[in-house]
Amino acid sequence: xxxxxxxxxxxxxxxxxxDDLSIATDLYVNHAQRMLDQGCVxxxxxxxxxxxxxVGIDERIEAxxxxxxxxxxxxxxxxxxxxxxxxxxxxxxxxxxxxxxxxVMTLPPFYYKAVKExxxxxxxxxxxxxxxADARIVLYHIPPIAIVGIPPxxxxxxxxDFPKQIVGIKDSSGDWENTKQLLDIDGLPVFPxxxxxxxxxxxxxxxxxxxxxxxxxxxxxxRIIQLYDQGDxxxxxxxxxxxxxxxxxxxxxxxxxAQKRLLALASGDDRWANVRPPLxxxxxxxxxxxxxxxKRDFAFEVSxxxx
Length: 307
Known about the structure:
Layout lengths: L7 E4 L13 H13 L4 E2 L13 H13 L16 H13 L5 E3 L10 H15 L5 E5 L1 H4 L5 H10 L4 E6 L4 H8 L6 E3 L5 H6 L4 E3 L3 H16 L3 H20 L2 H13 L16 H15 L9
Parallel strand pairs: 1-2, 1-7, 3-4, 4-5, 5-6
Helix pairs in contact: 2-3, 3-4, 6-7, 9-10, 11-12
């Protein structure tokens, strides 16, 4: 499906690792399929949640190809390809697009600080030229992590000058005022990077959200969007509150190690708890405590079965 037609929940996939820290392909394929079965309209391999900056370029290419080889539709994939230089970002992006992916999700160059807007514009201008005219880029704005951001004025300028290549933006700023400004850009799909502002964003024209906690709560988040689209805003609001409370509880525990440990406990496969350095795995005891809290406070248990 073309990216501009996607409406709903996108899951930034957690990346499971074997005990030797190679990618656990079997778990990865099953988890990706589970996300789609539970209502996600697309998956985003190798975003922040997928420990992307701890995974090599060739590893990412092999993993995405592995998903496709195991029957997953590449048009439902938006792999993360943002690196700190044009050559590597373009190589990874070009390869993913050639595999049939709907688009790629790309960070700004995040190493150099205090870069001016014109310089960031030139970066993306050159990136598009290097990838090719059929580039399909979802800008990835996450200044709490990358420091370097993509402000609304730059996003609007890039979309106006490259409307076929700049096809959307994920806003993980956590700043609702920023999200609102992005939603004012004519024709640019804006996906908040969390379910927290989801209902307000849908009301202003957002097509959905990209949420890390989709990895354990996809069905509920996808259902919120479905109910909203059906006009049942009261039911959507009733589901939204527990989903946001769950999100906040996971955030406080460290969303990557916490969700991985919860999946390990639910599946019985301890490989799910593995993270690559510099992250540290959540202990079994801490995971059991978190699982108990989620069950007590939110009547929530992680399921690894199909929705």
